[in-house]
Every structure is written in C-alpha cells, then in structure tokens.
Amino acid sequence: MFQESQRAIDIMRCQLPEQRREARIHNQASGSVFFVNQPQEAQTAHLRDLNTLGAFFYSKLAAAAGQSLALHILMPKSGDGTQLKMVCEGMVVRVESGQDGVGTGFAIQFSRYDISWIH
User: CA 10, 73, 47: angle at the middle one, nearest 5?
Assistant: First the structure.
C-alpha cells in the first residue's frame, strides 16, 4: 500500500544526502486527516515518517500545496499499555501523486502539535 518516492529510497540507501533539519522516524501508524475546521470530511491517513517539524503520509484527501491540514495519529500501544496520541496542524509543502489505488502522498510542515499519553 505504501509507495516510497525514488528520492526517499536514494536518501535511505545513502546515495543522496539527507536534507532535513531533523532526523525522521519511520512509523507506519494510521490515523485521520482533514482540512482545518472541517473534521466532518476526515479521511484515513497512513503515516510513512515524521519528525518534530513535519510528517509524510498517504491519504485519499484532495489537498494541494499551501493548504492547512489537521492530522490525528494514535500510535500502537506500548509495553505498559499506554498509547501516544498526536494531534497536529500544518501546511502541505509537497504532494506526490498516487498510482493505481495508492493514496496521494503529502508532506506537511507542522505549525502546532499536541502530544499526550492515553492510559
């Protein structure tokens, strides 16, 4: 279901230098994404990676660069049964077209986020 861009593959294989200011964490958690102030139009989001500045995810949402999105992700339960909940808002900075049923890829730069533990 996930599709890596050739650029991302080259960076992971150390064929291109990493250009991010913060290291990314690869995590394939799922959640929801919607236009800020339009939660009734939420779509499923499949996270590919994230860091403290932004995230890349796949979704069927019809968004374009420059639009503001809200991203809600609930990480898998940890060994003690708690879960990390992330509620983020940010602007779309890159869109990668999906192919053959794969959702469109979105890179967002966070403007704010809230991280909390669910017990």
Answer: 20
